Amino acid sequence: MDDVLIIGGGVIGLSLAWELARQGRTVQVIDRGELGREASWAGAGILPPAAFKADDHPAEQLRGLACRLHGQWAERLRRETGLDNGYRRCGGLYLARTAGERAALAAWAALLREDGVAMESLTDDALGQLEPGLAPGAGTAAVLAPEEAQLRNPWHLQALAAACQRAGVRLAPLTPAEELVVRDGELAAVHTPRGPLHARQFCFTSGAWTGQLLRHAGLSLAILPIRGQMVLFRCSQPPLRRIVNEGSRYLVPREDGRVLAGSTEEDVGFDKRTTDEALAELVAFARGLVPALAAAQIERTWAGLRPGSLDGMPYLGRLPGLANAYVAAGHFRTGLYLSPATAVVMSQLMRGEPPEIDLSPFRVGR
Question: Which of 176, 177, 200, 232 has the fewest CB neighbours in a 10 Å radius?
Fold first, then answer.
């Protein structure tokens, strides 16, 4: 019998599996589809800057811990697997257009400066010098975050899966959880097409599908699938060097000339189809900011389902009424970003250690 069965093989599940295996636990990961092919794969890999402060809210501490860990994990993954996950500290620009957006951007930048995060307000001339590929007047206010980083989602997931296998984690894609067997206040087994799977502990990291799964155990978890659509441009050379953020939309340049444009937020249930209207809006947004993209090939479009919670924070902790079952889901747009920090604190909790971040604000039923 394994020590831990993880139900959900996205970036949260694979990260937790790797962390637990590194701490000496035997782990199996199952997933209803291919590993890491849902929201984890569909995102852009933006890693905003953050600082860890002991007096911050736990949600901010989780961000700070994640920011600190990403560079360490990228190096460890490269060392253990030989794979590059695309981690680069490329810097990020934040643009605002309206008076309200300018005020919100200035307040956010001021808070980060107080925490010791570098944030530099830019004039129009300075913005044009930093990113000459941007359209003139791209924003009426701009802030540079030089510590912002990115990674390549598919590369990161490939490296995580390889690291898990090297650490002895058993990976079982195309193995959906069909039924949960509860006995005497514990989760006794998870039934799959391969038969029942047993473990000493279980953790649900099933993204947007977590709420559906837990209903089999009589638990209610308010996680909603929120569709996000994406456009990938291919250029002969990178038209940008830095990530560009404007509200909830962004452009992410890759070193090979590709540029990701995203993303939408649509409450449409479990529908992953793209729509002509949303894609046209993203294309117009991207080409409006970077005129060179008008001549760029649209290489691919896709959509993913983010696991949204009602208050925007993930569910992290033990499941009520089940002594040996846990959940780490509901990260919405920050799953890949928060994945190493989530793995560390959940591993601490499941191994009986005090988590370095207070998890009570993330509890189920809050």
Answer: 200
Both 160 and 183 in a single domain? yes
Are 158 and 201 in a shared domain? yes
**CATH number of the domain within which 303 lies:** 3.30.9.10
Residues 46 and 182 in one domain: yes
Q: Among candidates 190, 251, 349, which has minimal Cα distance to 45?
A: 251
Q: Do residue 159 and residue 247 come from a single domain? A: no
Count of Cβ atoms closer than 10 Å to residue 269 Cβ: 12
Amino acid code (one letter) for 48: P
- Could you please report the per-residue DSSP string of 316-339? EEEPTT-TTEEEEE--GGGHHHHH
Q: Are residues 195 and 284 in the same domain?
A: no
**Do residue 187 and residue 282 come from a single domain?**
no
Q: Which token pair is 23?
A: 């701490």
159 and 14 co-located in one domain: yes
Q: Report residue 263: phi and psi, to 5°.
A: -150, 165
Domain count along the chain? 2
According to DSSP H, which parts of the chain are helical?
A: 11-22, 39-42, 58-81, 99-114, 124-130, 153-166, 210-214, 276-289, 335-350
Per-residue pLDDT 10s for the chain (366 aa) are 999 999 999 999 999 999 999 999 999 999 999 999 999 999 999 999 999 988 899 999 999 999 999 999 999 999 999 999 999 999 999 999 999 999 999 999 999 999 999 999 999 999 999 999 999 988 889 999 999 999 999 999 999 999 999 999 999 999 999 999 999 999 999 999 999 999 999 999 999 999 999 998 999 999 999 999 999 999 999 999 999 999 999 999 999 999 999 999 999 999 999 999 999 999 999 999 999 999 999 999 999 999 999 999 999 999 999 999 999 999 999 999 999 999 999 999 999 999 999 999 999 999
Sheet strands side by side (includes 186-192): 179-183, 186-192, 195-197
Which residues span the domain enclosing 203?
2-85+153-222+310-362
